[in-house]
Design a protein that fits this description.
The complex is a heterotrimer of chains A (298), B (259) and C (368). Chain A is an all-alpha fold. Chain A has 15 helices and no strands. Chain A is globular and about 70 Å long. Chain A starts with 17 loop residues before the first helix and ends with a helix. Chain C folds into 2 domains: 234 residues, Rossmann fold, CATH 3.40.50.300; 121 residues, OB fold (Dihydrolipoamide Acetyltransferase, E2P). A 6-stranded mixed beta sheet of chain C has the order 6-7-8-3-9-10, sandwiched between helices. Chain C has a 5-stranded antiparallel beta sheet with strand order 13-12-11-14-20. Chain C contains 8 helices and 20 strands. The chains are: A mainly alpha (298), B mainly alpha (259), C alpha+beta (368). Chains A and B meet through helix 2, helix 4, helix 5, helix 6 and helix 8 of A and helix 1, helix 2, helix 4, helix 5 and helix 6 of B.
Chain lengths: 298, 259, 368
Amino acid sequence: MSEIVQPSPIAVPLGAVRPLLLNWRRHVPLLLVAPLLIYMLVLYALPVLAMLLRSLNDPNWTLSHYAALFEDVVFAKTFWITFNTSITVTLGCLILGYPVALGLVRAKTMAPLILVIILLPFWTSVLVRSYAWMVLLGRHGLVNEGLIALGMIDRPIRILNTTLATQIAMIHILLPYMILPIANALRQIDPSLIRAASGLGATPFMTFRQVILPLSMSGVAAGTLLTFVLALGFYITPAMVGGPRDITLSMLIAQQVDQLNWAYAATLSAVLLATALAILAAARHLPGVGNAFKTSMR
Amino acid sequence: MILTRLLPASVVGLILFFLAFPIVVVAIVSFSEATYLTFPPPAFGLRWYKAYFSSEDWLKPTWVSLWVAAAVVVLATFLGTLAALGVSRLSRPMRILATGLILSPLIVPGIVVAIGIYYAYSRYGLVGTPIAMVLAHTCLAVPFVVTSVTASLAGLDPRLEQASLSLGATPGATFWQVTLPLIRPGVLVGALFAFITSFDELIVALFISGTGAVTLPRRMWDDLRFQIDPTIAAVSTLTIVLTAVLMGCAHFLRKRNQA
Amino acid sequence: MGEAGMNGAGRGASVTLADLVKRYDRVNAVDGVSLDIRSGEFLTLLGPSGSGKTSTLMMIAGFETPTSGDIAIDGKSVVAMPPYRRNIGMVFQNYALFPHLTVEENIGFPLKQRGIPKAERAKLVAEALDLVHLPGYGARYPRQLSGGQQQRVAVARAVVFKPRLLLMDEPLGALDKQLRENLQLEMRRLHADLGITFIYVTHDQEEALTMSDRIAVMNDGKVAQVGSPEDLYDRPTDRFVAGFIGESNFLPAIVRGMEDDIVIAECDGAIIRAMCPSRPASGDKVTLTTRPERLRFADSAWSATTPQNRLSVTVTEAVFAGERCRYMLQAGDGTSMVLKEPSSAAIRRRAIGERAEISWSVADTILV
């Protein structure tokens, strides 16, 4: 503000105070944000960075922890399981989520009810939802009892503590993250486009294939990305309902911390974090992805 | 009408059933009279609710969770609202940096946050204290406050603040009499999200709640390792109801804000 | 309407803008505006969007800081003063009524800021509501009012604390034509009643002509011309003003000589006389302007008898528009012109392609 000239002969002395006042005002936004930034740096960002640093400086500066991962069979297997599970779960969510998103957008009187059914599990804690699947899939759970009653099996089969159980529970938990971005994209399609397509002689299938599906791809991309990145970091659900061999990266990290093996835990954390960030960065310019986190909130 | 032919309502219905059913089952099981987990329950009663409300082992973690969540609401709402007010007026590079940091807990895998916090907090003897839980949960809750308040600020006509200034209200008076009342629904929604985030949080709690600050999710987790008795179903049902009520409030506030 | 007081002494404030500049990203939105606004005057800043009129108003209100130059109210510089100390009433484009406050609380808001006790406040609010013809509406919320009612509440709120200067930023822009015309009259009445200075921003030239004591036409961040509505309409000093306010014909011409204040110019082989305050040299290429409704067909009954300019033209288009006929004409050198003739069943309509002679008064011809 120093470039302001005050040529007026009638300027009052107030002008003298002005640069200071304005400078103070200009920094107000930063002063408002600063408490939170400092808080999060000290209590969250620096702790995480300090922990991650253990992968590089334990016992002294070295890349050997990362190099070791290449020959680490346990890591390779865990990484594969984590990736594999995430892909399966994401595909499952996509297949189940798209029809629900369409149904939600098309529904009129039923829409609020459908929304509640989608959001109620969404707001329920992961722990409670995982517990629900323990109840359903256990030896004396509803699924086993039902299958026996139908005569399909003679005695309870093992579903709980298998890879399948993990996948079912994770799809259940992540489904809303897929549905909401797709529904958002679908909602933005101008209904007159669909009328125009059928007016031009397109069959319902062609209308879907050539108008609705392409126009909803931004939502599909956002939902897929969000679901996949969240699935990569899953810990509680696989630990509760998964099989003994279904160790995810998150579980392996927790194990290593329990054994105070910080260097290894930090290295795995860095890999997990880098994978998630790399996927987000690669998809950053896809339309709709930027808003995915905001629209779905949790 | 085109789509009804392509997409039978029954398919959507089945998927919705898949979404809702597990939660309904938990609620039904919680009213079971059986001593073990079975479905459908042989008889209905409040046995497991009584067990919950008469057990100090359950009530103490409940109080810890409620107190921690309440403190998180105060801290996260205060810090988050302040930051939301400033963040849109920052210069572009500063804004990207600040929002990146503030929103990052939504993306960084929970286990990485949890062990990072555990790693640092344990050096300062914070592990096992409710304070540590509040400090850590606030970081996780703040993104919801900031996004919610930012959204209501974006819907605020800047001319209202200008009008207030032109009518003789100082910047302070303008904030209290104009800006704050108008963004209040956004602040309250953010506060509700903050409460639920803290109340339901488990991964960080697993590492830093120790023995001194066992929260309700932590207590449930410990219990599940040894048994699956229906008390947990009762606790779960109670938390579902609490969450649903709070989310209903949030929804109502948002609707009213738009009207 | 300036009789409320002589300079600086009346109920209205005088405002002086001295070489005001506002620069955004290397573009001067306001580029050296100097203007003396008299006490009690109704001055309109008129211009197309992007002309700098709103930026000028925002600097007077104190929401924008000038890059250079000075703003003085009653002779005192206010650039260093924050908006809440300037004591200026302002009516915003969309009214900016506080949605969480009732009409009463909205109008009482500036009084509350000034620490006026509740009882006194209620009295002043009631008076303000009477002034804008909305008694009994105090308990309603803004969203329960129509657009026109909201506009009146915004005015009441802006004048209730008796400011000596009222700024208005396109306050009628969102209303339909009928309501806008009613409120224009009401604004004039209000201005006469209050006797304070009004600075009014609009892009609507008709609105500016109807309401203002004086109009400052702005273009590209500069004041193109300041004057009374009659001045601007009858004697535009520049081509932009002539084109922006009302409709104008522009005739290219070459100066042949001067007679007192009248320039003699040659246009399409004909000699045209025009009013001209400056003294162009013989042989200069100039532009003359005339208003379409002041042109007449030389052989028609409407044709007057005062000193005339005459020109031969061909009719290229004829449109009947109820109260008048509108003709597009072409002169021999290709210049197109518009002529508006009051319609009458007694007058013969011209056909397309018809050759005609048009005439108009020297006083209605201006060199710009």
